[in-house]
Each structure stands twice: as C-alpha cells, then as structure tokens.
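Progress note, sequence design subtask.
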C-alpha cells in the first residue's frame, strides 16, 4: 500500500496526511491514485464523521509533480488521464456528507489550491503562502482550481492569482476568504474543529456541507427540493428529536 498519503483513524475521525515532504507534497501519479482510492473508501464508510486533511514537512502541497510530468515520457493524454483520477477524488470528497477541515502549515501552489479547497474549513499558519504558478510553466488550472478558487475568493481575485505571478500571505488569504482562520498551531485548531463536529449533531453538519457544496451547481428549484427532503429526514432521526425537544423545552422555560 502506498504511503504517499497516510490514513489514521481515531474513532469517527479520519486523518489524511500528504506524505511526500521531500517533494513538497507534490502529487505524483501514485499519490493521485491513492487520493482517489481513499476518497471512495472514506466516503463509503458510515463510521467516518469528520476528516482532517494535513501534510508532512514544510509545505502543504506544491500541486502536481512537474518533475515527474517532465521525465515520465508521457503525453498530454497521460496528464489528462491522471488529472481525471485526482478529480474523481476531489469530486467525491466535495460532494460527500462528511465535513473536512484542512490544516495548512506552509506553501500551497498550483493544484495544491484545489486539493486544499476540497476541504470545507481551512485553518492556516501565519507563515502559509498561496500561489498559482500554472501559467509560469505554460500549463492551465486543474484539480478543481478553476471552479473552487473563484467560489472561495470571487472571480476577480481568482484571476489575479491565475493571470499574474502573485503570491499572497496568510493574512491576505484570510481577508480574501481563501482560508477561515490563521492561527499559530493550525493542526491543533483543525483537530478542535473536527472534534466539535463529532461532539455535536454530526450528521446535520455533514448534510449542511453537502447542500452548500452541491447547491452551487444546480437549479434553485432542485436545491429547494433537496433541502426539504434533507430537513425532513433529519427531523425523523433520534438525534434531532432529542435536540429539538431540548431546544423547545428551554424556550418554554425562558418564556415562563
């Protein structure tokens, strides 16, 4: 089994760690296949309630492994096929009902932006930096960057990153909405967030994530129908019944 991405389970919490630190966690063909396979494995497992995405070494992810691309002898068709494998994993995570928090400790470049944005909540260290670099080497965005980046920061700022050699620091990423928090210990904070999901109404958090992620690409009427079905299904669960009853009782007590 590949060790390019490590999987650690602690009850309902799954941790995925990019583990090619010598290559700044750039995703090669083996790592891309591992990413897709783990996405399918975890999202099909009903015992997984939250996922932490982090990375070993000084960088979070430098995107695709350009060195391997240049030396593999493959063609454009090879790159297209590999991108499709990684895209399968990204789509699977994004459209799942499992909330994901990313801990970003260093540089994020190119397709690493898309992998990071597969997470629903991003915590960055003060030294984290974010850059595109696609056009610098004559390549175009992949790994969901052309969709996930403008969804996070807006079209104009996404174009600023993609069409200029701009590197933004963590405070700017926070201002732009690329990350949710900047803290000294992003790993600890990411764990805290994931634990809060697991200690709360886990299923409801997951469905809220799914509704927002999938809703951006569907007709409004379809989203409303999905919301109606989802809240009805949630209302019938034992967890929701207990929480709704407790909320109602507390409300009656305050009014008395």
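Output:
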């Amino acid at each position: 089994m590949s060790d390019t991405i490590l999987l650690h389970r602690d009850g309902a919490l799954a941790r995925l760690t990019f583990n090619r630190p010598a290559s700044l966690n750039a995703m090669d063909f083996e790592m891309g296949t591992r990413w897709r396979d783990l996405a399918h494995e975890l999202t099909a497992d009903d015992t997984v309630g939250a996922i932490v995405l982090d990375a070993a070494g000084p960088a979070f992810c430098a995107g695709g492994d350009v060195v391997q691309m240049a030396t593999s002898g493959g063609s454009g068709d090879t790159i297209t096929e590999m991108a499709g494998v990684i895209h399968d994993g990204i789509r699977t995570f994004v459209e799942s009902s499992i909330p994901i928090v990313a801990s970003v400790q260093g540089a994020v470049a190119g397709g690493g932006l898309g992998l990071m944005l597969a997470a629903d909540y991003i915590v960055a260290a003060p030294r984290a930096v974010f850059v595109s670099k696609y056009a610098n080497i004559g390549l175009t965005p992949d790994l969901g960057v052309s969709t996930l980046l403008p969804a996070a920061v807006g079209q104009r700022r996404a174009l600023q990153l993609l069409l200029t050699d701009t590197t933004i620091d963590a405070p700017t990423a926070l201002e732009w909405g690329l990350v949710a928090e900047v803290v000294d210990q992003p790993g600890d904070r990411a764990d805290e967030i994931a634990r809060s999901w697991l200690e709360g109404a886990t299923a409801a958090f997951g469905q809220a994530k799914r509704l927002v992620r999938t809703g951006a690409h569907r007709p409004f009427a379809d989203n409303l129908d999905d919301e109606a079905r989802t809240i009805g299904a949630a209302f019938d669960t034992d967890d929701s019944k207990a929480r709704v009853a407790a909320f109602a009782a507390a409300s009656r007590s305050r009014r008395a």
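The radius of gyration is 19 Å. Work on this subtask will continue into the next period as scheduled.
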